[in-house]
## 1
Amino acid sequence: MRKINTSDVFKMARLLREGNIAEAVRKAYLDGKKEGADSEDIGMNAIFDILCSCTDPSVEDQFCDLLAGICEKKKEDISNQSIETTVGDLKRICEENNIVNFFRSASRLGGKIQG
C-alpha cells in the first residue's frame, strides 16, 4: 500500500461531487475535531457513509479505481474482493495516512468543483 498522493485528492474530489459524499466527509472531519472523539468509530462511520453513497455504477467505478491505486491492486481485484477486505483496506489507508488532512483537502477541492 502506498501513501495518498495528489492525484488521489483529485480523484476523491470527483467522488465527492459525483457520489454526493461531501457531507459524509465533512461530518467525519467535524466529528474528529470533537473532544474525546474515537477515531476508529469516526473512521468506520465515514467508511459506511461513503460506501452507502457509492450506489451509482460510475461512482462505484471511480471508488474502485481510487482504492486500487492506493492499495496497489487491480481495479477488478478491488471490485471482486470481500467487503471485509475492502473495509480493512480503508482502515489501513486511514491509519497509514493523515486522513484528516486528506479529507480536508479533498472536501475543499470538491467544494470548488461543485461551485
Note: The longest helix spans residues 99-114.
## 2
Amino acid sequence: MQTIEESIRLFNESWGIYQKIIYNNYMFHREIGEAVRGFAAEYFGEKPISLIDLGCGDASQTLAAFACCKVQFYQGCDVSTVALELAEQNLNAAGIPHMLENTDMLEAA
C-alpha cells in the first residue's frame, strides 16, 4: 500500500497527464461540470455562496461549474503544490477571496 507521501509525489509528477485527461474529456469532466452548473444556477440563483473543494487541483473545474454563481469565498485543499499554485492564480484572476491548504483531502475532510 502506498503512503500518503508516495501518493503526493506520484500526483505531482503526473499533473501533466491529468491535464491531458481533462483536456480530452476522458473522464467526462465537461458533462459533470454542465450538470453541476445547471443545478447550481437553479438552486442558488443570485445568492452568495461559499465553496469547500476537496482535491481542488487548480480550481478550474470548480470555477467553471460555479461560474453562474456569486462565489463569495472558496476554500480548497490538494496534495499537489503545483496544482495549488495554479489554483491561487485562477482564484486571484477571478477575484474570489480564498484559502488554500496543501493537505490530503481525506485528512481535510
Note: The first helix runs from residue 4 to 13.
## 3
Amino acid sequence: MRVAVSFLRFITASVSLLFVCACNVTEDLPTYAESTIVGEGDLIPNFEVVLTDGTTLDSRDYIGEPLLLILFSPACPDCKMLLDELQQLIDADESLPQMLAVGRDATHDDIVAYADENGYTMPLAPDAQRGVFSLFATNYVPRTYLIGRDGVVEMLAIEYDPSYIPALLERAALL
C-alpha cells in the first residue's frame, strides 16, 4: 500500500512539474512584434528560392509587381487553412497578385507531397534550413506579406484569420 501511495505521489508531482515547465516555456515566447524582423513599411530582403518545379526565383524578380508572400509550415493547421483559402480563390479565377509560398523547415520532397496531397497550384518553395524565414521572422507561421511594386511591405498578417484575406486582396488591387 505504501509503495502504491508513494508511486501515486511521484506521478502527481511529475505531472505537476510538467505542467509548470510547459507554462514557463509558453511564457518565454516572443510577442508578434518581437518575433518580426521585416514588418510593414520595410523593404524586403533579397533572397532566392528554388520552386518545386526547379525554377529559381530571386526576390528582386518581383520588383514592379505586387507579391503575396506566404511563409508557412506544412505541419501547421492554420497554414493549411490559409493555403486552402488561397487555392479556392485561384480555382475561382479571382484577381490575385502574384503569390509565393515558402515552406519553413520543409524539404523539396515535403513540399511536393504537401502540394499534391492538398491540390495546391500556387508557386511553392522549400526552406529546409529557414534561410528565407529567418530573414523575416524568428517565430510564428503563417506569415502573409503583401509586398508592393517597390518591394516594400504594405501589409503583414501573422497567424491565420479569414477576415484579413479580403483586406489583403483589396489593398493588393490598389497597388
Note: Confidence is low (pLDDT under 50) at residues 4-8, 10-25.
